[in-house]
Structure formats: C-alpha cells, structure tokens
Predict the 3D structure of the following.
Amino acid sequence: MRISQKNRVRLIAAAAGVSLFLNPGQAAADQTGSLSESSSQGSATSGSATSGSGEAPSGGTPSGNANTDRGDSDTGDGNSADDGSPGDPSPSDGGSPSDGGESPGGGTGSGAGGSPGDGGSPGTGTGTGTGDGGSPGDNESPGAQTPVTDTPANGAATTPDTSSTHNGSAGIEPVEESTDTTPPTTTPPTYAGTPAYTGSAEGGGASSGTNPPANTTPPATDQSTFSEPGTTTATTEPGPGPGPGERVTTEPTDTGQTDTTQPNTTQTDTPQMLAFSTPASILTETGDTPQTFAPAAFLNAGPTTTTATTPPTTTGQAVAGLFVILGLPTLGGPAATTYATHPAPWTLLWWVQRTRSFLHNQTPTATPTLQPTIDGYTISLNATDPDCDPLTTTIASGPANGTAVVNSDGTITYTASPGSPTADQFTVKLSDTGPHFHGLASLLSIFTGRDPHTRYVTINVPAPTNQAPTINLAPPSQPALGSGTVTGTLTATDPDSDPLTFTVNGANTTGTNIFTTAKGATLLLDPAMGTYTYIPSGAQRLAASYLHATSDDLDETLTITVDDGRGGTDSATVIAPVAGIVLPGSPNGNLPIAADGTAYQVSFDYDPDTGVVTNYVTVITPTGTTIVTTVAGDPYSDIQVDPGGTAHLASYTYNPDTGESEFYIAAITPSGTSTATQLTGVPIGSLQVAPNGTVYQVIRTDDPVSGDAVYHTTTITPAGTTTVTELIGTVADLRIAPNGTAYHTTSTYNGSTGQYTTYVTTITTTGTLTAVIPLAGAPGGLQFAPDGTAYQTTYTEDPVTGDTITNVTTITTAGNAIRTSLFGYPFSDLLIAPDSTAYQSTYTYDATTDVYNTYVTAITTDGTATRISLLDAIPGHLQIAPDGTVYQTTYTYDPVAGDATYVIAITGTAVDLEVRADGTPNGGPVIATDGTVYQTTYTYDPATGDLVYNVVAITAIGGLAFTQLDGAPYGDLQTAPDNTAYYTLYTYDPTGDISFFITAVDSSGVLTATTPLSGVPTGGLTFAPDGTAYQITYIDDPVTSETSYFVTGVADGIATITPLTGYWYSEVLIAPDSSAHLITYTSDHATGDMTYYVTSITATGATTTPLGGQPWGVPQLRPDGSVLQTVDAGNGVTRIVVIKPADTAPVV
C-alpha cells in the first residue's frame, strides 16, 4: 500500500502533536537552551577538528538536546554552563553531533547520540569536538554564510570568529576560496537545492541531513508551496527516497568566500509576527498519486537572525513547544533568536520512509545490451533497483552452446563454443536480497517458493555471423635427394580469428595436422610456420621408380580443406610430385640384396674444390624406404650381406702426409646404423661373413725387425668385439664352415728339405683359436660337407719316384684330422654328396702300355676311405645326383672298333650301373632335377667326314634312350625346370651357310621340338619357370657392318623372336613370373653418347624403354620377384630403376 503525500504529513503532524502534549516541558526547556546549537558541543582541546564516529541510533530516543548533549569544553570560549544556560559560541563548534563532514568554520564535530538527520551548524572555531557515539552525517553545512549572533541570557552578544574555512562536502568538488568583504545582509542566500534527508537503521548506516542556512527570512504568508528558501519542491514523487547511506544529488550553492564583516550586535526589540500558512501541497488532494516528499523542505525552515527593537510577542507554552519541534520561530520571548530544528520529526520521517522501503520493496529490472567480441559477446545488464538496493548477479542457467561468466564490473562475458553456428540462450538471476518485504508477494513466497527479491532475465544470444577462412598453397619444391621429400608454403587465415582445423581428401588423420594420404604418403601441415611437407611412402617411390611408371605413379593430387568450426570452409589443391629412388653421388660397386629383399648400394660424391670424396651406403628396404649413411674412406671391395641382412664394407683412407693408409670394415644394419672397425694391418683378399654375422678378414703386417710379412685373422663379432689371431706361414685360403667357424689354410716352405707344410687354423665366431692342424704337403682346396666336416687336399712328392701324391685330410667337427692318400692324379674337383661323403676321381697312366686307369675314392666323415677302380678307362667328368648317386664318365679308345663311352653309377662305395654308348663323350654327364642323366657323345662318319652327335638318357630307375641329334651342339646341354633337355645346334648347308636352331629332348630320349634361330647365338640358353627357353642371337649386316640382336623365346616348340634396340649389354634375367629382361645400348657415332634400353618380354609381348642413364652392374632379382637396376644418371646422382615390380601372385 502506498502512502500519499497528504497522509504522510498528517501522520507527522499527529506524531508531533502527541509529542507536544505528552512532553510540554521539553519545549519550554528548549526555549531556554542554547539557541545557536542543535548538537552537543565537542570539547575544544587543540584547535583541530576531529570527526566524530559511531552508530546512528535506530528506534531509540533521539539525542542531541541543547541542555543534555553538550560536551564539556576543556579550552576555549564556547563552554556551556552545567545548568543548561547557553554559553558563548565555542570556537570548536564546527560540526553537528551526527555530522561526519567539516563545518564552514573548518571544524569537524561529532556528537554523542546526535540526531540522525542533523547537519553540522556553522561553526566559527577551529577546535576539535569529540562526542560519544554520534552517528556520522553525510552532508556538510553550506559555506559562506553570515555568522549567527548568539545572545546569551545576560544580553551580551558575542561575536563569533569569522575566520572560518569551508572545505566542501563529500561528493562536491571544492571551490577555490576567496575573501568576501561585502557587508552582511539579511537577504537569504540562494541555494541550488537542499539535500534530502537519508536515514539509516541501526547497524552502521550513515545519516545525512541539510544544515539550515545562517541568514534566512521566514517564509512569506502567501507562499503556495512549502519549501526551504532557494529550494523548489516537485509535485510528483519519482520513487522511494534515498536508501541508507545515499545522498540526493541536489547541492547547495557555495560562494567559497570568507565573510569578514562584523555582525550587528545591537539588540532590536522589534516584535516579529509569526507567518504560518498551510502549503498548497497539503491543501490539494492528490489521492494515491505519488508525491515528491522533501522532509527538509517541509520541516526545516532554517534559523533566522533578527534584531529585537520592540517587545516581543509571546507565544503560549504548548504552541511554542510545537514550533520548537517543527523548528519554527515563536512570536515572543526575551529576544528574537534562531531555533535549531528538533530531531524528533526527522526521526519520525526516517522511520516512516524506512518502513515503507522495508515493507514495500520493489524488484530490480534489467535491460541487457550485447557488444560483439571475437568469440562471443560482452553483455551489459543495465540493471537498476527502484529502491537503490545493491544487486547480486549470478548465472541461473548456463548457455547450451557456449559459456557465460559474470565479471567483477557486473558485465557478463559470453564465449561461444568453437564451431557453434547456432543461437544461444541463458538466464541471469538479479537479486536485491536484504531485509526487505515485497508486501503481499513476500507473504505468498512462503507458499509458492518464488523469491520476490529476484528477477530472472533471459539473455538471447543471436547466431554468430561468420566469415569463411581462406587457404592458399604454393607449388611444391623439387623432391629432395634420398628422401624424396617435397615442401611448400601454406597460408590459412580466418577473418574472425576462429581456430582452424585441416582435413585432406581421402587421407587418414594420424596426429595433429599429420595425415596419411590415399596413396600412403605422409603429409605434415604446419599452419604456424606456414608450410606443408609431403613425404612419399616407400611403396610410392618404388612405383615411381618403375620403368613403365604412369602419371598416376609420379604424383599425387592433394585437396586440403580448412574449417573454422562455424560452417566456414575453404579448399586448395596442390599436385605433389613423387620421385623414384634417387641416391646421392655416383654409383660404386654392386647392388647386393639380402634374403629379406633389403638392397645396399654404394655411391660416392667428389668435391672438386676441396678434393674430398664422400662415400655413402644407401639402404633400400623392401618397402622402398631409403636410409643414407656415410662410411669412412673409399671402398676397396664389394659390399657383402650376411644372412641376417647386415651389410659389410671394407674401405680405406690414405694420409698423404705420412704415406700410410688406414683400413676399416663398416657394418651397416637394415635400419641404416653404421659401425666402423679399424684394422691393424693391410687386408689380404676379401672379407668373409659367417651365418651369424661375424666377419673374418685376413690382414698382413710387417715384422719390424726382420721385415717379413706376418699374417693375422681379424674377427669382428656382431656386437663389435674385435679379436686378432696370428697365423703360421703364408695365407692360401679362407673358408667359413656351416657353423660359422673360420678355416684358414696357410703353408710354410723349408728350403733345406724342399718340403711344404700346410696348416689349417680354426677360429670360432667369438675369435677363439681352437686348433692348428699341420699337414704334410702343399695346400690344395678345402671343401665342407653339409654336417660341417672339412676336407683339405694337399700334395706331396713321392721320395722314390718323384710322383705327386694327392692327400685328402678329413677334419671332423671334433677337430680330429685323418689323412687319406689317394692313388693317382686328381682329374676333377673334390665333390661332396648330400650325406657328407666326399668323392675324388684320380687316374694313372702307364706310358709303357698306354693304359689309363680311373679310380673313384669315397671318404666318409670319419675318415674311412674306399677306392673304386675303373680299369683301362680314360677318366671323364664326375657328377653327383640330388639323390646322392655318383655318375662317373669314362671312355675307351679303339681305332678299329671305335670309341666307347661309359657312364658308371656308384651308390655309396659300390657300382650299381654301367651304361655303354658309342662314341667319345662330349662334356660330362648333365643331371636333371628328376635324376635323369643326359650324356652327349659323338662319332665320326667316314662317308661324309662329319661328326654325328647322339644323346643317351638314363632315368633314375635305369631306363635308357639313345637319340641322334640333327646338328652339332653350340654350347653345353642344358635342362629346363620341367627336366627337358635343350640343345642349341647348328648345321652347314652345301653353300657353306650356317643355321642355328634349338632342339628339345625329353627324358625318354624323344626329340620334342626343333626351332630355327635368327642369327648367331651368343651366350647360353636361359630358362624361365614356365619352361620357356630364351636365346640371344645377332646378325651382322655385310653392307653397313651393323649388328642386330634378337632374343628368341621357345615354348612348346613355338619360337617368339623379339628384335632388340642396339647392342646386347647383359644376359637375360628371368623373373619368378617367367618374364625376361635384358639391357641393350646404342651409340651416337658423332658424339659418342650412349643410350641404354631395357627390353622386357612377357607372355603378352615385348616392350623396350630407355633406361635413363648408364646401367651399373647387372639387374638384381629380389625375393619378391622385383628386378632392380642401378643407373648412373649423371651429375652425381644415382637412380634405382625397378625393371619389374614385385610379383602379386605366386608362380605355379
């Protein structure tokens, strides 16, 4: 319920009347009190003002009566009497008891329980007044006022100190002071307005009021409004009054000048009429319309200074009491004096206003405004509270697509979630929670649970406006040597500074801005550095190295898309080149391939400015990845690969200052790690590698005393441990046993006896010397059986006949040595059967009888020797079949009956079969994989004078077949994978022209096909897994002297002839899929430049493609069926060309 202005005044008047009649004596006492004070005077001690402090009374009896609330003054002229008679104006009277500000006189007063709404009176002294708990006031008394003349009871007027200084009130900018010499006048000064009274409840709230001006005149009797002079009172009420501790914005006008004029002290007895009119605001009925209520304007009429010249008109005690309460002058008395405003109506007014605010509090309001930021909005609530209560802001319900945070200044920062393109909403809670009631709403909240102190404000965040990002890609660089990596510039920007994410078409994300492309490359994006890096995979590089690579193999198209997460995207496309396998430097050495397909290529680079040569070893993995490492010195032998895949390279460096060379052996693992070991001498022969990776190298040093050569074996384990073992004599041979043990054959010569001694030294893979076995005679060859037994051949001289004796020493795996002396002279090499038995053929010749005898000696692993004698037989070749059967060919010479050839089959130590064929053997027996033995013979035809060639086929089960050939063999007989025997034959026609053809003979001795060849064969036959036989031929042009080359493939008797470009350069290389590949070249006679080509022949035809450089070495076959060729591309660059990709299916 709202209280109208009229009713408020009536309540105040009623309360004042009740107070008047209940305590009339107080009014009478007030008339005899100090008329110049409305607060207790502080005790002036040192002349400096001290602000009083304390809490304003709330609900208690107002304090500050002139008779009871004045403090005693220790010094100065303003001490009042104990009986309540007014004393002289004290210099320390610079502030009212409740005033916390400074008085115009420069003093600051604080009272003991001063009235809550009392402002400071204009003091004239500079002393300090100290009270006992007066509540601090907020407003100061206006400055530049005419000093009040205080007439004491004895009629002697005192003149106040006019040297007061006004420092301004809180919230009012100070005005520069100046000296006022204008004589005093009774005309009231003009005020901009009088601050409205603001009270506070007990608990520390500050009270403030308006000090009445020093010189004013009573209001005229015809005034239509009830207000303080110089103040206009509005007729409508804008809202509740100021809250506790707050000031109104109306400020008094301050001249800022010091009045030095002495007041008129002559007492005037002129009677004064009381002019009292009812304000129009009271007479006019306003109903419930809110009215502006200025308690100071209504109750505080300010003190007036007058001079009494006639006897005063007296006023009744009751009326005088009411006037005193209302702060109005009386009609009579001893003298016309200024009366201070009584605190009672102010207390009542404060109580009424506070009660209204407490019981009828209003809910705060807000008008949010949004200011866009980079990633959201800054939201100002513009919240207000009609009651000026402090507000608390909290987030009641957060946004769904972002975050909202309340800042210390009351604003809210909204941050949208990255990539959120939609609008958002959240709710803010505004609360003026305090000791308030919202009328009926507060009572209903007990039942509804709805807090009337709180207002919920819904903030609607609009959908963010977004600008799409942009991306630009510069063309890539040329592929780097070795890695094939290409780089380029990437520029990605977003006008909204949104965080950007990147995707690549068809690629998988493997890390932050790391992608595996559709073709397997690694793509690295670095937006901060503005670069992209494209690293092709090994498979891509292998495909790009393919001789017949397509455009799809040589590049990859990349589309990179940038996304700001808010719906904005942009894309750019770049074509990244894919380089084949390119190595630094020019090629050097072979291209060995490990069992797993890892290849190693040595290359070197020469710097003409410094003369420095840098040597590289590049590891080419089966997947095409390349790893380049450097090695110390220049290689002096081919690189070797152990069964584990580690490569070993011997190199040296030469010091021109000392003339000495240093030698190294480097181990390069498949991962590219290189470890070099320096040798302590000069290497002899090539290094040997054991199955476990241990390296053996024979070195030579010179004895510093004798100068003789001393030989050592350096053992380097896979862990890098090096052991040097001194050897006896001169090195003859170094062989590695199946278990990795090294056998060193050395010898010494005794000049006095003319005898040689052979030493076999065994060293394990750990470098341990296990045996030194001396053998009589000069060293021969050393062979190993599958079980590790070693057979060492030596030669001695018969002391009687001087004949050479062949000895075979069996060195068991236990280190035992058993020597077997053979009868006769060795005819073929020592051969070892699959069961580890060794066979050696020898012969003897009796010149007297012209008889040859042949012997085959079988030596088992325990040293047991069995000799098989083939008497009256000239020895031929010895061969061992896969099943262990030994075939020895012999023949006899009979000029009458003709020559006869014999093929003897020996199993173990016994002869199982002997086959006779006419003619003389043409080469030794050839054994197919199925055990069929083919032996070629020839006879002389006396009728034609030609040689007639025949072939005898002996099956594993003893079957025989004799077949006459249609020509003379041009090379040795060869067997195909299907066990068919092939001959390249030739014939002459009567004109002398020669013709070549290929004849196939099966195991039954049947001629299956004869295919003519174009030109003269070069090299032998080469067979594919599918049984196709390839033969290279050439034809010389008698006119141009040019030579043309061809390759003929024969399958099932059908020949396919392919002309070659240029000259033949390499043998035919057969891949597991039966495709054939060979290299040719052409030469420019004018420039001497040569161009190399690769011809590939498959079942579908032949293609010839330029190689792109000079081939280095011969094509190499990897286990996966791919064929690699090293090419010197010139300008210090080595390329690996894939002549044939890996097989995609096994060969059947």
Remarks:
- The two ends are 108 Å apart (CA to CA).
- Residues 555 and 577 are 4 Å apart (CA to CA).
